[in-house]
Hemoglobin-like protein HbO
Amino acid sequence: MTTTPLGPNHTPFDRLGHDAAVDLAKRFYDHMDAHEPALVAVHRQDDEGRIAPIVRERFTAFLVEWLGGPALYSPKHGHPRLRMRHAPFPIGTDLRDAWVRCMKAALDHPTVDDEVREYLNRRFAEVADFLRNRPDA
Ligand code: HEM
């Protein structure tokens, strides 16, 4: 489930470091909360209608592990099985593109160098497309 390493001995996590990886997940949901109401609407929310802390926590743990960092997700939650876990949500091109916009905005930050940014934008776009489970109307 981890990304293909960027090089023989380094992963995106090696390049980013722990704090930048955690900040990436934070910026991703901050952008979603601020700019993508239709995407927020399919997630669990807090009393103010923002993405619930539990959602942020689980995705952050996944992201650290997926980028090649410590296994914070799978020992606790099992294999991510992303298609199965996303099956309840109607993911067509609109939600896919909204998700990709949030991640693109989050990756556009000085703690992410150009090579890592390009690589991750490409990988996230592939995974997001793989999670589509509804034909467009
Ligand atoms: C394609 C558009 C996507 C949509 C619309 C979407 C939507 C969602 C929703 C609604 C949840 C559940 C939130 C909740 O518990 O309330 C979720 C969870 C999650 N998503 Fe996505 N997602 C998308 C793409 C992705 C991608 C590309 C990845 C990985 C690279 C990903 C990884 C995860 C993970 C790890 C969780 C947490 C699963 C858990 O509860 O353990 N998602 N997503």
Notes: The chain has a mean pLDDT of 95.
